[in-house]
Design brief:
There is one protein chain. About 25% of the residues lie in helices and about 30% in strands. With about 220 residues, it is an alpha+beta fold. A 7-stranded antiparallel beta sheet has the order 1-7-6-5-4-3-2. Strands 8-9 form a two-stranded antiparallel sheet.
Length: about 220
């Protein structure tokens, strides 16, 4: 079945050590802060999540984490909704740079916005958007203030083209995001950032714990109470 999937890839080099880049990119709830086509990523638990995106039309799906190796790779595959799977790899380029490769595969839905649209250019446009969003991610990390590379205080990731700044995130996504800066501290990104996106957060997003990697294998953490 996967041979019929549309396959897309984008890559960027980030001026930060691999552990910091991995820590940020593995925090899925932050995706709408720097991605334009991701409108929601919220967690059911530390292994499963719900996604809303504009990929050849608006689509939703549930996903489970797959093949996580700390500082090396994260992956997922859908369990419900739009059929898709993917992975992100992290390669250190010296001590202060990281090459990020994103691979996304999805089964285009039937109809003009799906299979036909993919062949008529929707796929190439999506790949262009993906690359642009990755470039934004690299710029945000490069311009981050000292000590801000912690995913629990990553509000500097916002940029003017992201779904969050444009007000295109879902209500549930907005409820999971909170501005963590202290009152009166300057906002790193532009003033167009929606107030609601800056002032709310999800307790679920803080509960996320990636699988652990030991002795050549990765292991899911025990469920949290």
């Amino acid at each position: 079945m996967a041979e019929n999937y549309a396959a897309h890839h984008a890559s960027v080099t980030v001026d930060a050590p691999v552990h910091q880049v991995y820590s940020l990119f593995s925090h899925f709830n932050d995706f709408p802060k720097f991605m334009s086509f991701i409108k929601e990523v919220t967690y059911y638990d530390n292994q499963t999540s719900h996604w809303v995106a504009e990929v050849a039309g608006r689509h939703e799906w549930d996903a489970v984490n797959d093949q996580w190796i700390p500082d090396r790779q994260i992956g997922w595959h859908s369990t419900k909704g739009l059929e898709n799977f993917g992975k992100v790899t992290f390669e250190p380029m010296g001590s202060a740079q990281t090459k990020v490769d994103v691979y996304i595969n999805y089964n285009p839905p039937a109809g003009v916005l799906g299979d036909v649209g993919e062949k008529l250019g929707a796929g190439s446009r999506f790949e262009h958007v993906l690359q642009n969003d990755l470039n934004h991610f690299a710029r945000m990390v490069d311009e981050a203030p000292p000590g801000a590379l912690d995913p629990t205080s990553s509000d500097y990731l916002f940029h003017s083209e992201s779904a969050a700044v444009k007000g295109k995130t879902t209500e549930r996504q907005n409820e999971t995001m909170q501005q963590r800066r202290t009152e009166g501290e300057p906002l790193r990104s532009d003033d167009t950032l929606p107030r609601q996106s800056r002032e709310q957060e999800s307790d679920r997003s803080e509960k996320f714990i990636p699988p652990q990697y030991t002795d050549g294998e990765f292991h899911s953490p025990p469920p949290q109470s």
